[in-house]
């Protein structure tokens, strides 16, 4: 048998990959005396997706450190959060969560007998708990309750009283579950500090709080149950996993907001202590990484190609999902899944449906694409693979744009060059510099990868509109909403013709002076 880990080793296991710990001294003091008691809660709302492997991975760490772990299925919280789970579906969704969370834990080798599973309604409807809710409401201000739930409770124009109760109930859970610590995402921080402030006012101890970073989804933003393209469902077919990973944001050399890399860091590495990049012999063969930092460094320096990274994650992820798919491939659980999450046309009273809503037109005229002129270009101060450019697009001031072109286009070839710029993406920070647009480029399909900025026709002026043939009219969106995925949906049909002309569904990109093209990458993609 392996020797029991020391308090310091337990502390390292418990805190690795966390973004923040509130109460570090208390944590170490407890570990020197006994095992830590900790809980993780999940509101039983939307279907769990692969991002749930992030807290599952930490739960595995907690058990390795000898912690006594409780998993709370927060069914009452799901109802209080703007009725995300309608009352008539609450029991069904809680049962679904219990089955799927246990299947996830089993798939990563966590022994279920070492865990305690509790439903919120098992104790939150008791006389004692209810009295404490009233006691808490007599000391908590409306301002503090609203502030505490701002990052977690759905924010609406006319908030319900239920959303103000939510943080108080989560604080009381720490006392009623008899734990030393609560674990959650860093988006829970305001609720955690709320609990630290108010539990002592009821005569209860202040707890330790452990926070995971928010792991970006496949599109670069938060992975969300309500944002279909940002997530991979636990029951997605293998072909769906491949399709979603293929579309995932994974720009060469860019390690910021990279959901593919983040999944490796927070799930695959902690589970296996290594990650294998699978690739053909002609590209160097398979490479095993035993430290995440080495993989990130190689990706930043473009030693590892995004395609190889995605393929390797696909293989590893399907190994985790296979036992979950198998468990849910039985009539009983198929029926439970359909009943807990009915399709919109079958939605029960109180459940939000979309059958009467009009689908939005996803057409090229919604993109604000303009001719730009590169006024200046320099290396990003904190990223070897990125340029920071100032680009004139006919506005009062040039735009700052960050592009991953260092390994493809020399600085002198960008300076004073005319480019094609997508101008209505939401500004996004890339390694600390806010990028206010995207330089559209042609990219080769095969290896080695080649990239060429798209060329507007000679004689164009900065600010001239670029449009798709047949879509000259129509006003572009002021700002493309990330959740709508308008650009991503249109981009799927962008390509370079055999004549090196940029096209969408065989329709040319144009300005008033002619077609937009690239120099040589016929048959390539556009990104």
Written description of the protein model:
This protein folds into 3 domains: 206 residues, HUPs (Rossmann fold); 103 residues, Tyrosyl-Transfer RNA Synthetase (Orthogonal Bundle), CATH 1.10.240; 163 residues, Beta Barrel (OB fold (Dihydrolipoamide Acetyltransferase, E2P)). The chain is of the alpha+beta class and 527 residues long. Strands 9, 10, 11, 12, 15, 18, 19, 20, 21 and 22 form a 10-stranded antiparallel β-sheet that branches. It has a 6-stranded mixed β-sheet with strand order 1-6-5-2-3-4. It has a 3-stranded antiparallel β-sheet with strand order 17-16-23, with no helix packed on it. The longest helix has 22 residues. Helix 6 crosses helix 8. GO terms for molecular function: ATP binding; tRNA binding; tyrosine-tRNA ligase activity. It holds the Pfam family tRNA_bind. One of its GO terms (cellular component) is cytoplasm. One of its GO terms (biological process) is response to stress.
């Amino acid at each position: 048998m392996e020797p029991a880990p020391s308090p310091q080793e337990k502390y390292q296991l418990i805190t690795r990959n966390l973004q923040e710990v509130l109460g570090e001294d208390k944590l170490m003091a407890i570990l020197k005396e006994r095992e830590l008691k900790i809980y993780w809660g999940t509101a039983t709302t939307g279907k769990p997706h692969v991002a749930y492997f992030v807290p599952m991975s930490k739960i595995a760490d907690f058990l390795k450190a000898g912690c006594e772990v409780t998993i709370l299925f927060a069914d009452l919280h799901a109802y209080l959060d703007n009725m995300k789970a309608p009352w008539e579906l609450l029991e069904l969704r809680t049962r679904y969560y219990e089955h799927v969370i246990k299947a996830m834990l089993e798939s990563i080798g966590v022994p279920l007998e070492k865990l305690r599973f509790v439903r919120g309604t098992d104790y939150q409807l008791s006389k004692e708990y209810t009295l404490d809710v009233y006691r808490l409401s007599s000391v908590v201000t409306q301002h503090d309750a609203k502030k505490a739930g701002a990052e977690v409770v759905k924010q609406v124009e006319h908030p319900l009283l239920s959303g103000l109760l939510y943080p108080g109930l989560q604080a009381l859970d720490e006392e009623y579950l008899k734990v030393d610590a609560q674990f959650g995402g860093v988006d829970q921080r305001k609720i955690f500090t709320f609990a630290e402030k108010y539990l002592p006012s009821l005569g209860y101890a202040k707890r330790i709080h452990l926070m995971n970073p928010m792991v970006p989804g496949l599109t670069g933003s938060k992975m969300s149950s309500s944002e279909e393209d940002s997530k991979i469902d636990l029951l997605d077919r293998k072909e769906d996993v491949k399709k979603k990973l293929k579309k995932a944001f994974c720009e060469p050399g860019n390690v910021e907001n990279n959901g593919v890399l983040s999944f490796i860091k927070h799930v695959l590495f902690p589970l296996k202590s290594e990650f294998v990049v699978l690739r053909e012999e002609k590209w160097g063969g398979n490479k095993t990484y035993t430290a995440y930092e080495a993989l990130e460094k190689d990706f930043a320096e473009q030693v590892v190609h995004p395609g190889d990274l995605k393929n390797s994650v696909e293989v590893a992820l399907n190994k985790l999902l296979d036992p979950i798919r198998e468990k849910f491939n039985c009539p009983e659980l198929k029926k439970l899944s359909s009943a807990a999450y009915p399709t919109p046309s079958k939605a029960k009273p109180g459940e939000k449906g979309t059958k009467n809503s009009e689908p939005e037109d996803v057409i090229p005229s919604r993109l604000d694409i303009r001719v730009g002129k590169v006024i200046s270009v320099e290396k990003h101060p904190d990223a070897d693979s990125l340029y920071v450019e100032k680009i004139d697009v006919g506005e009062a001031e040039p735009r700052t744009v960050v592009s991953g072109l260092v390994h493809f286009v020399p600085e002198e070839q960008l300076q004073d060059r005319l480019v094609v710029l997508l101008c209505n993406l939401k500004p996004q920070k890339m390694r600390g510099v806010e990028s206010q647009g995207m330089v559209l480029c042609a990219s080769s399909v095969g290896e080695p990868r080649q990239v060429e900025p798209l060329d507007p026709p000679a004689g164009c002026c900065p600010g001239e509109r670029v449009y798709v043939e047949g879509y000259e009219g129509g006003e572009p969106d002021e700002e493309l909403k990330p959740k709508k995925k308008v650009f991503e949906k249109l981009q799927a049909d962008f390509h370079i013709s055999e004549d090196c002309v940029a096209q969408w569904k065989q329709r040319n990109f144009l300005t008033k002076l002619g077609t937009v093209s690239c120099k040589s990458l016929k048959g390539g993609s556009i990104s």
